[in-house]
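The passage that follows is intended for readers who have already worked through the single-chain material. We present the inputs for a multi-component assembly, then the predicted structure in tokenized form, and finally a short commentary. You are encouraged to pause after the input and sketch how you expect the pieces to fit together before reading on.
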Amino acid sequence: MEKKVARALAKLRRVRGLSEEEKYLFARSLVATPDERWRLHESFLRSHDLFTRSARRKYGFR
Amino acid sequence: MSGAILQGVPATTLDTDIWIDLPSRQYIRVLNLCRRLGAEVRANTVVDLSDGSTVNFLYQVHGLRGFHYEYQRAKRLNWLGMTVAVLPLKRIYASKKFVRRPKDLAHLPLLEQTMKLGRRLARETRKPVLDRAKK
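Having made your guess, compare it with the prediction:
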């Protein structure tokens, strides 16, 4: 996946108004398959302990 | 936002919205099916699945046309071994722009940027092929 991201990032290099980190984020997300995108999303929630409702309630989410 | 995430929007969401083609008064049919699948019912339109994820059922989506019109034009994606129909980003954008809750408005720039960059990537990817064709 990293090769695909690097190719996409090169194509987004001249986009204005985005930092390098933001461009990387978009490049990674756009070249990923739906399954990969969903995995990234779930990993993000799990890393913040927000994946399940019971976990979210600890932080005040309803 | 789940449909948007599956199409490349680098966002996150706490639940998955599923649009059901039934009158809302028949919500009990959906809840019974969820119970049979081991889900825990939280409200008339909200269930927690056995993996802990939350699903929200919608019987009407504001700012869009009817279910059949949108379903025919939905994008078909392969996701977790299934083919699922998701609203195209343009239609998600239209709905959020219409609904205008703060969280919807917050997503608009991200959706817009993703559509713009997606078009740019598609254009740039086609370019070498076109250049070769010219030669």
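Commentary: Residues 1 and 13 of chain B are 6 Å apart (CA to CA). Chain B has one domain: 2-22+59-134. How closely did your sketch match?
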